[in-house]
């Protein structure tokens, strides 16, 4: 490394403190102010490991910040350095801190024969070490421009490893070269890789323009494999825009081309997005059938690792967002088995996030927390569009263990990152006696034209019944129930049936019919047990205890409390104050 005044040079990078700029091969990268400050601090103190506390004080003096804020800055810094093949120059030292490793930077700067770099990249690809492959490709390309085939392979590896930005410049160069040479199919392939990278980086406008440009190159080539990839990506974009019919049409085209060309990747991805489109339209059972077929294709072989990982992760997402926790648990296990068998890591963090949500519902709270924290760093770098979702899942886990203040901070951070924190935030408000606030938040969520909220409409309406009853607005609770009865209800799994039964119990209690309420709550308990969710079961049992005490049936209430405090003790921690109050009522009732 060399330094002049406040300028540091390492590898192909130049970090200029005075100008507050980071350039890679002469091209300036846009950095958030605190990301730049973090890099400068680590470079200035590169001779040692800098502790987390020291960095927090340096970057946020005398301020309290949310969990993972520092980790997110480190991820963004690595993401920027990845464009120079130096993502690993900022090293993590568990339980100690971070260090800018001069040796790594010098090693990257040292010349090496291009052929050896390519050999190292291909060897890393063989063992599915996407990070090492991307670094080797970047180093080889810096010495001598790579061939088009190698750039395409690099782009795919970068997508798999969550390092898409590292390949952008090379892919853009390849598009320009192939377009000038009249090789439309090759230009389209490279452009479609850029589409995926831009979508994952929350750059939807750029992605749409690239997708349209790829379509121009594919004019007159209706049945090519490239057209099939264009079709499934178009389905993904249509879904994001809320156009289910267009998504289905594009996915049908991908399936047709995949079958015609015997391309399992295109067909599998087409089936996956056809399933999403059908579910968005309301054809849930048919949509899940498409996902089942896609999963069967993967298990039977023939689907390449990146397409298989993408599809399985997307299928798991669909089950999670429709609260089909039995199905989500099955696909979480299937993904884990496939990941081990194919030596594929998490893809790229989002699947860990979905699995953490499943573990939370199942009451495996410590493991769930570990999963979501492991996913957070990958998501910040590879899939920033999902970073807010990670905070929502973390908030749900914190809510399950009774860390209410931390849960609220997580939901607020999710909102700050552009993700709607419902229905978790409404559950928190109900648990803390803020029913009117819960109701307002749910009403806003139901009016928001957001794809992820549309997927959870049944959950939102069921919870709105609870919030409206608790805030004394029984008329609005009945309206919400009528919307469930009138078509919004999609009771295709036990979790949603349990939620509806609990909502019906609230209305029965509002009418003074404790017997009907108890009947509905017992139905909810049975469904939650079928799902294997102690978290849901605890809430239903505690409400049943309150009903039984209101009816004067203390012995039956005692039996329910015994289950809560024995078999469901871990999941009951979040309700410790409520349990203490119910225990006091039981003591009074039994004299």
Can you say what the CATH homologous superfamily of the domain at 429-590 is? Tetratricopeptide repeat domain
CATH topology of the domain at 429-590: Serine Threonine Protein Phosphatase 5, Tetratricopeptide repeat
Count of distinct strands: 8
Overall pLDDT metric: 86
Shape: globular
**Sheet with the most strands: spatial strand order:** 1-2-3-4-5
Helix content: over 70%
From the N-terminal CA to the C-terminal CA, the straight-line distance is 79 Å
Rg for CA atoms: 26 Å
pLDDT < 50 runs, ≥5 residues = 104-112
The CATH class of the domain at 429-590: Mainly Alpha
The CATH architecture designation of the domain at 429-590 is Alpha Horseshoe
Residue share in β-strands? under 5%
Provide a short characterization of the protein structure:
With 591 residues, the protein is mainly alpha-helical. It has helices spanning 33-44, 52-59, 69-81, 102-109, 114-126, 130-143, 148-160, 168-180, 184-200, 204-217, 225-240, 244-260, 264-281, 284-300, 305-321, 325-342, 350-361, 365-382, 387-401, 404-416, 424-431, 435-447, 451-455, 457-470, 474-488, 494-510, 514-531, 534-551, 554-565, 576-590; strands at 2-4, 7-10, 13-16, 21-24, 27-29, 50-51, 90-93, 97-100.
